[in-house]
Amino acid sequence: MKKYLFFAAALLCATAANAKLWRINYDDNAQADFKTIKLCLAWNGFTDGDTLYMEPGVHNGSSTDNTVSKSCTIIGPGWGFQSSTNSISELESAVLNGNLYLSSKDGISVKIYGIVATNGISVNSTSTAYKLSNLVIERCYASTITNLYTNNLTVKNCFTFGNISISSTTTASIIGNIIRGQLNLCTPGVRLVVDHNTICASTGTSNMLVDMDEKTVFSNNIVINSSKADYVNINAFLEPSYSMYNNVISFTTATIEDAEYKGDHTYDALKDPSCTNKIDATVANTFKCHIDNGIVDNAMYYYVKDDAVAKTADSKGGECGAFGGDYPYQLNGRPNGVPYLYDIVVPTHTDNNQLKISFKVAGNNE
Q1: pTM for the model
Q2: According to the 3-state scheme, what is the secondary structure of 117-167?
Q3: Secondary structure letter of residue 47 according to DSSP
Q4: What average pLDDT values come out for the chain (366 residues) when binned by 10 residues?
Q5: Angle 26-27-32 (CA atoms, 0-180°, nearest 5)?
Q6: Among 15, 70, 136, 231, whose CB has the most other CB atoms within 10 angstroms?
Q7: What's the CA gap between 115 and 131, in Å, rounded?
Q8: Cα(166)–Cα(152) distance, rounded to whole angstroms?
C-alpha cells in the first residue's frame, strides 16, 4: 500500500493544484480512483485535458479496457533499471497487458509517458479521414508503435521490439529511439524528422521500408541490417535533394548485389570519403554488448563502443544513435520532469501518536 501512496505523492508534486488527476490501478489494494482507463474515460467527471496516472503493477483486462477516446495525458513510472534486478518489474512499472488503443477522433490530443505496453500502442483506425490532432509517445516500452493516424506525431526515447510505422500524418518527429523491428516510413509528402535513432532489426526482418522525399530529414542514425534477404533503401542516402546525412549504416550483401545489378555504383559512392553517411557498420563493430552477457535491460546492448565509427560521426562530432544528440535515451525510462522518490525512511515507532515519514524526491532524470 505504501508504494502506491508514495508514487501518487511524488506525481502530485509536479502538477498544478487545480489540475484533475486520476489514479489508475487494477489492484484493489491500491484503492485507486479507477481500475482501468476505460472506466475513467467513461465517467462523466472526466474532462478533456485531465491526467491519468498509471500506477506500478500489472494492468490486466482486454485491449478494450485500454482505449483512449478523449484528450488526456497518461503518465507511468517508467521502466528498466527500476530495481536491483535491472529488469522490468510488475511492482515498479505500469505494465499494460493488451494493446493501448487511441481513438482517431478529430481534435483529440494525447500524451503518453513512461508506460509498458506489452502488445503495443496504436491508433484504432483504418481511415485517413480521422486523425488525432497531436500524439506524443515518450520513454515508453512497447512491442510496436503502429497505425499512427495523427496530424502531429512525436515518438521520443522509446524502446520497441517490433515496428514503428507511420501510416498517415502531417508532421512527425522520431527521435532517440531504439527500434528492434522495422521503421516504416512509407509516407511521401510528410514532413519527417528522424534523428539519433538506433535501428537494428533481428535476423530475417528488414530494418526500413522507405519512401522518402525532399521533406524527409534522416540524420545521425545507426541503421544496421542483420538480414541478408532484406535491405535498407541505400539509394535514398545519395539523392542530392534529400536531407540524409551523418548516418552510420550497414550495407548488406543483398543490397550490394542489387546495386551492382542496376549498375548504379551506389556502393562506390558511399565509400567515397566525401559522403557523410558511413557504411560497413555491423553489430559486432558498433555496440559494446553485442552478445548476451546476462544483462536484462536490452537497451544496454546498444551502447556504442568507444572506437566505433558511430562514436564521433554525428553532425556535431558526437555520437550517432539513440544515446547521442540533444535527447539521449535514458535507461530508467522515467518521464522527463516528473519527480520520483529515491529514499524513504519509515520509523518503527510513533512520536506523540504521529508517524513521521521522511523521503527524498528527485526532480530530474539523473
Answers
A1: 0.83
A2: ECCCEEECCCCCCCCEEEEEEECCEECCEECCEEEEEEEECCEECCCEECC
A3: -
A4: 49 55 88 90 89 88 81 86 48 80 81 90 68 89 83 91 77 91 72 89 56 76 67 58 81 51 53 75 80 57 92 95 94 73 67 72 54
A5: 75
A6: 231
A7: 23
A8: 11
